[in-house]
Amino acid sequence: MEVGFLGLGIMGKAMSMNLLKHGFKVTVWNRTLSKCDELVEHGASVCESPAEVIKKCKYTIAMLSDPCAALSVVFDKGGVLEQICEGKGYIDMSTVDAETSLKINEAITGKGGWFVEGPVSGSKKPAEDGQLIILAAGDKALFEESIPVFDVLGKRSFFLGQVGNGAKMKLIVNMIMGSMMNAFSEGLVLADKSGLSSDTLLDILDLGAMTNPMFKGKGPSMNKSSYPPAFPLKHQQKDMRLALALGDENAVSMPVAAAANEAFKKARSLGLGDLDFSAVIEAVKFSRE
Amino acid sequence: MEVGFLGLGIMGKAMSMNLLKHGFKVTVWNRTLSKCDELVEHGASVCESPAEVIKKCKYTIAMLSDPCAALSVVFDKGGVLEQICEGKGYIDMSTVDAETSLKINEAITGKGGWFVEGPVSGSKKPAEDGQLIILAAGDKALFEESIPVFDVLGKRSFFLGQVGNGAKMKLIVNMIMGSMMNAFSEGLVLADKSGLSSDTLLDILDLGAMTNPMFKGKGPSMNKSSYPPAFPLKHQQKDMRLALALGDENAVSMPVAAAANEAFKKARSLGLGDLDFSAVIEAVKFSRE
Amino acid sequence: MEVGFLGLGIMGKAMSMNLLKHGFKVTVWNRTLSKCDELVEHGASVCESPAEVIKKCKYTIAMLSDPCAALSVVFDKGGVLEQICEGKGYIDMSTVDAETSLKINEAITGKGGWFVEGPVSGSKKPAEDGQLIILAAGDKALFEESIPVFDVLGKRSFFLGQVGNGAKMKLIVNMIMGSMMNAFSEGLVLADKSGLSSDTLLDILDLGAMTNPMFKGKGPSMNKSSYPPAFPLKHQQKDMRLALALGDENAVSMPVAAAANEAFKKARSLGLGDLDFSAVIEAVKFSRE
Amino acid sequence: MEVGFLGLGIMGKAMSMNLLKHGFKVTVWNRTLSKCDELVEHGASVCESPAEVIKKCKYTIAMLSDPCAALSVVFDKGGVLEQICEGKGYIDMSTVDAETSLKINEAITGKGGWFVEGPVSGSKKPAEDGQLIILAAGDKALFEESIPVFDVLGKRSFFLGQVGNGAKMKLIVNMIMGSMMNAFSEGLVLADKSGLSSDTLLDILDLGAMTNPMFKGKGPSMNKSSYPPAFPLKHQQKDMRLALALGDENAVSMPVAAAANEAFKKARSLGLGDLDFSAVIEAVKFSRE
Known about the structure:
- The structure is a homotetramer.
- Chain A is an alpha/beta fold and about 290 residues long.
- Chain A folds into 2 domains: about 1-160, 3-Layer(aba) Sandwich (Rossmann fold), CATH 3.40.50.720; about 170-285, N-(1-d-carboxylethyl)-l-norvaline Dehydrogenase, domain 2.
- Helix content of chain A is about 55%, strand content about 15%.
- Chain A has 14 helices and 9 strands.
- In chain A, strands 1, 2, 3, 4, 5, 6, 7, 8 and 9 form a 9-stranded mixed β-sheet that branches.
- In chain A, helix 9 crosses helix 10, helix 9 packs across helix 12 and helix 10 packs antiparallel against helix 11 (about 215-225).
- Chains in contact: A-B, A-C, A-D, B-C, B-D, C-D.
- At the A-B interface, strand 9, helix 9, helix 10, helix 11 and helix 12 of A face strand 9, helix 9, helix 10, helix 11 and helix 12 of B.
- Chains A, B, C, D: It catalyses: glycolate + NADP(+) = glyoxylate + NADPH + H(+); 4-hydroxybutanoate + NADP(+) = succinate semialdehyde + NADPH + H(+).
């Protein structure tokens, strides 16, 4: 199977390498073309524009850094739109908002092309190991034809219906994560201020029904006030805000998420926006006593 | 090793049976004495009052239903206080508030006895399997001498310092649990009202960094609006309230736990107090649209 | 002094009538021209398009129903932009968001015109009595030249700096109002459920330091579960959301406003969006006990 | 009419002086007897114990500093209980919790005496001016016989039913006050951080439907970060906590009051407990940006 691949950042590189390893023919493009070299050594072909990749391949995957880059690769000169047509599929796995996804979908399908959005859950390591979780939505037929690709990239892929649903599902997952992180932070601080050991609390949580990789992974560094940014707090807060907006649209009252969002905002006002989102514990801790 | 055991409810029976199986000599007492019969068949001795058990055994464990029963067994006629003295240890594993624990501690140590509180995390099944988590506090020497007992009853035991700390730690664990349950509930409802499948959300959560036995165990029944009471909502709300009171004492502001507590209160006002605490999702769901 | 007046809805009619009474020469326009008749009887002139009004008058006031109408009157064929030029002032007193206001400002000033936004606080009665509160922002010179007009229309006018500040100030005022309404609602319900009279609570509040026209005006009907829509709940909730978004931009954590916003959302989900915003008390009241 | 008066602190002195001025015969007692001198100069008699006052007078009023003093005056040697009997009325106007009030009521009525609790709203100035608001509850007949006294001390007195209701009503009033203060604080900070003048916001609020003496009185000093303690923040937070507990008893979910309570707790953790409760604005303001 032959696939195009647009965008060779940390994620895109790991993903396209995986495809090569599993016997796919891969044609890559990246804004900075030199980043393609390593892939070429492993057997990839290169094109000089997104349009050329589309022209050459029946299926093209994109993994771009943000909504702005995702739009640019489609709409700019030499972009996807110039060559997309009936019989060709475009799978955008970048993390973008539902609105951006809908705009790209409209343009692609307007030219007769097929479109699937497929944001992923998981970062560098799962990308390298082919262990991503893929939240796909859009054209069902294209999704099904893409299953061999998704099977290589992820441990599981979901088809969620119409375009926008992938983005929405990701927001909801991140909203639960943000509220859980606050629940966890309040517990750790309460233990500490009540004269108990917050390290022991970690051990106890780890033995019970709430044990989860996030508490296990981040708890020990939180107890050391260390927050190396895996997922920056300001992005977590933005996702909380967008999830609350989704609740607003659908008249779902979510007081716990709203309280968590305000805690993340307080953390931002304390200058912690670029640290890991677990730094929200600093907003709970802060006192002068 | 010989131990006394007061209280043969669901938990106490499983625990004393476990001790017998592991070769301990066990002397039991229960308010309704007939409940001792099964234990006797497995080799236990019986006494007719808590005082007699204390007189006979160096170490006595209690596992009673509530603070009221815990106090009665110590202070009433024929109670623990009549025989406790220097050289004897009393280990109360009932779930009681810190105040009750402190009152018992004062009385026991006033007579020269040793006291450890040891509330447990885990219910019937872990009790039978010797897989409880024991949150012990009080007399360090008694705790250490009790380790052979705790090793049979639990998969792990913690020594948390002064009397009251066991009760406090349990409240904190339950507070995190209550906030997490609200985070989870809001996410499930938001998915549903946004046109996504809340069953798919469960699958996605299960594959990621937040996967935990509680979401896995309760999610499917929550999506079916079924809440068989494992831990009644009214008790969860009481623990949230007490944890918030602990925060009040120590000037820890916990806006997420406070919002979760109000959601549990709303659920109580909807008549859901006797269902499982996961029924809080009904307070999120409720609408007329 | 001669002024143009665009828009003769409930507010615009009362305001332009007031100007006539105070000796201003007024030239009016309304989308449905027949609505101008009553004003003409009292001495107003009429034009057939916004552009004609602008051409005729040095100063023109607009009072339109929503952002859409405000934009249309400026940008459509026969609109303000066709005739606005250096030496002419345009004062938009409609309630619009900051973004709409900025867009109009840019267009007007791009043609050399002067622009002031001036949303008002107060509804029909204060408009008739010339008792509005005017939250003006934009061109300072135009504001100062407009003072004779504002003195007739309002009891007080404020100049708040750059365009957008009028809209923002109105949001903040409404945010405080929404949180206060929730505080009030919770108190009334708590009194009732605690076996106290919520009517007596109104009397007590009225005698103390918190007495205010809103509690006095709305309390008695709230106690009768009557919510005739003076300010619809869905608009109040929208303003809470926008004020929270303003807080988000400026990293101001506002947990009480966030909780109030979620209560308004719950009220919307209960089908109360078109009632007065005081109907949020129904979300507090709701229970099955 | 002859009345006894126990407790001559700031409030008690002003109140008993008022009674003398209005022609009542007053017999006073105070723990530190020398504090009675000024009253004696104005015509009061003195007794050496609460019991003696009760013996001498048909009606006795108490105005004591806290629940502890209120209990001591009744139950200690030389206390009210020694002389209270059928035909005598005891009116405790101290601010105490419902539980204390119920305990006193039980003791007084157990001896055949009549009891009314009558906490007041208002501080030194209203006490001097006879402008207190009296929240009475208990024995209806005694309340009615006391009206001439209440008419001198207050501008309005309410009879709220059974003992405890006076205390509860006061908590509810203070809960609304605490939430309103947070709503106000969030608005002032948001104005400031959004580049608007928080002093102008005060002016605007003062002209609209939310104008109230509290905003007017405290706003200007809050904008100057000045919080001279009229009602200490730690007491306001305690009243929020007790009002939330009352909500808990009655299954009333109050998310806005809960969020306000957490803000007051955060303020306490910032060391602001002894300042005026308006200092909660500092918890909103606090940031490092």
